[in-house]
Amino acid sequence: MFVRTATASSTAAALLGGGVLLLPADRPEAPERQTAPVVVAHRGASGYAPENTLAAVDAADALGIDWVESDVHRTRDGVLVVLHDTSLKRTTDVEQVFPDRAPWAVKDLTAAELAKLDAGSWFGTQFTGARVPTLTQFLHRLERNRQKLLLEIKSPATYPGIERDIIRVLGRSGWLDRAHVRDRLVVQSFGAASVKKVHTLRPDVTTGFLGTPAVADLPSYAAFTDQINPSYATIGADYVAAVQRLKGPHGKRLRVNTWTVNKAADAVRARDYGVDGIITNFPDVVRDATS
């Protein structure tokens, strides 16, 4: 569960109603950036609304955040849904609604059963009644808000063929036209085989690998992914530069989006490493610190 902190801006506080850290003197001065890193709302603005719900999408939109990161799973009857964990236990009332269905895995329940669950009250009573959205519902809300999507395939080995299912839903929802593919969609995963599969199915779609591959291995990743998206705790300026020296399958330099950065000081440090994007539960805090 995310803990709301006192670093939130007054704008964000209104939804629920940083500072700058200088580099140490002995640290080599980072190259000057021309633009601030792109800010990505992690599972929506999940510091202010229940993660991966439509309320979290709208909270990001209210903060003026274009990019939203989310996670996708598949139900027992083949419907794609937006949720982080493989189990429904942490972020819904599934234990009360279906007490005999432990361990309450997404893959073991139908979409109709998921639709009965409360996915909001765990975060705050004002969100009681929020539902686990289907991927289609999530895409429609992003489209209404004119937002962009960084979509993570969770536990792809649990859902054989999910990459093809995702491509199908994206296509049916209008997210595979030229404009969306060029500017508004990235598909990522910790599973290299899953990222490769997406690239094979739709070579035009921008892909991202979640993790911090060894520098020596980066050229092999550049064959099928456009982004290397590592944990903030695993990177420095040298690593970011090593990634960005390479070109991906679309002939453009690899980009680096780091996660999950929630404090202003860490955001400034990540910016000074030269990252292209920062994924955060508190997108207003990161934006204000790095812009």
In short:
Helix content is 32%, strand content 15%. The chain is built from 12 helices and 9 strands.
Can you walk through the features of this model?
The protein is α/β, with parallel strands linked by helices and 291 residues long. The protein has helices at residues 10-16, 54-62, 94-97, 111-114, 135-145, 162-172, 178-183, 192-201, 218-221, 237-244, 264-273, 283-290; strands at residues 38-42, 67-74, 80-82, 148-153, 185-189, 206-210, 227-229, 255-258, 277-280. It has an 8-stranded parallel barrel, surrounded by 5 helices. Helix 9 (218-221) links the parallel strand 6 (206-210) and strand 7 (227-229). Helix 2 (54-62) packs parallel to helix 5 (135-145) and helix 11 crosses helix 12. The longest helix has 11 residues, at 135-145.
Task: For this entry, give a set of tags.
291 residues; 15% strand; 32% helix; alpha/beta
